[in-house]
Specification:
By secondary structure, this protein is an all-alpha fold. The longest helix has 39 residues. The chain is elongated and about 80 Å long.
């Protein structure tokens, strides 16, 4: 039994070592690729406008207000 156990343990250690090294290299390479892409292709800055009450349709505003009121009072009619 011992004659099969030692080669099995060696194979286990070598296999897990190879997988660990591969995953470590993969993470390292992905981080490098990510930094390169962010440097040369930055995301465009988007400036969001706030919606004012004048831009919202009065019917939509009334429906939203009614839905919020119904939710807060707990009625489910």
């Amino acid at each position: 039994m011992t004659e099969l156990l030692m080669p099995g343990l060696e194979l286990l250690v070598v296999g897990m070592g190879i997988v660990f090294i591969f995953l470590t290299l993969l993470i390292f390479i992905l981080n490098i690729m990510s930094s390169i892409i962010q440097r040369y292709f930055p995301e465009p800055q988007v400036i969001a406008k706030k919606a004012t009450a004048n831009q919202i349709d009065p019917n939509v505003l009334a429906a939203i207000s009614a839905a919020v009121h119904r939710h807060r009072t707990g009625r489910t009619e």
